[in-house]
Amino acid sequence: MRILWRMLLLGAxxxxxxxxxxxxxxxxxxxxxxxxxxxxxxxxxxxxxxxxRLEAEQEEGVSLCFxxxxxxxxxxxxxxxxxxxxxxxxxxxxxxLLIPGGSLLAWRQEGCLVDEKTAEELFGSRSAGGQTLWxxxxxxxxxxxxxxxxxxxxRMAGEEEGSLLLGAVLExxxxxxxxxxxxxxxxxxxxxxxxxxxxxxxxxAENMLLLLPFLFVCSFCxxxxxxxxxxxxxxxxxxxFFLTAAAGLLFLWFLFCRLEIPKDMIPSRWSDFxxxxxxxxxxxxxxxxxxxxxxxxxxxTAVWNLLRSLLCSLAAxxxxxxxxxxxxxxxx
Length: 332
Prior knowledge:
By secondary structure, the protein is α+β, with helices and mostly antiparallel strands. Helix content is 49%, strand content 19%. The chain has helices at residues 2-27, 45-57, 103-108, 116-123, 178-188, 199-208, 211-229, 234-257, 275-292, 297-323, and strands at 33-38, 63-77, 82-93, 112-115, 132-135, 138-146, 152-156, 167-171, 193-196. The protein has a nine-stranded mixed β-sheet with strand order 5-6-4-7-3-2-8-1-9, with helices on both faces. The longest helix has 27 residues, at 297-323. The protein is globular and about 85 Å long. The relative contact order is 0.19.
């Protein structure tokens, strides 16, 4: 009974670790992107397109997509007579940075992408490509659907939108910190705003995946040292101790080499004692900005996947630790 219980706990921990790795991998596509939220003045389509053109002409320019959102609008299908309340995201630039499959919008210009839940409710199918969606008495062909954590319709901004573009998604070309890339972008174009990214969440999710393997290595070393103590001859014990220590150090070296540490978590001077307090305040402000503002769909989904990955990794570590507890601590 005790062995069966251990196997169930171990199996559950491995399943959770697999799920955590999957969600972390899904968020990886957005790991090199930062979000800029404009303050003071929002942009219209023409200004957004001009900034995108200027960035494309610069040697160190960034790929970007401006976006804005109208919350809680009504979209409908005349064929089925159904209507749904959803968020309407409009964009200009490279919509592939904003949403998976967004390149269709850049190619077709006219049309929209709809989340799968909204498509199923309006058209009776999650694959709604070729259907027609109506918004404010105007027909909008559906180019495709995407998985989403909320009801969302995405389309390219029109001339009638006015000053609606409230933020941008930037794709970093190198290893430079997202905050630095965003601030340089704002300065180049005389814009006021705040930069937010989820580099810390990404690194935390990556590192949490190593927690369960770390527990396994520690358990292996503990059992191996116990076996070495019970070895008969002194030379045999020394050899087992050496092999165990070497294997344990090799595994730990591999795990620690996989640790992800964002550059903004490394102080420039060891004597900068206020660094960690300032860093924590920046991260709190960053996360509050990400969660309080309407995000682009790709960023919202990436943050959600990272949070799910963190929770699953933590649950996997707890179950894995329970399965590795000494036999005397488990009830029969």
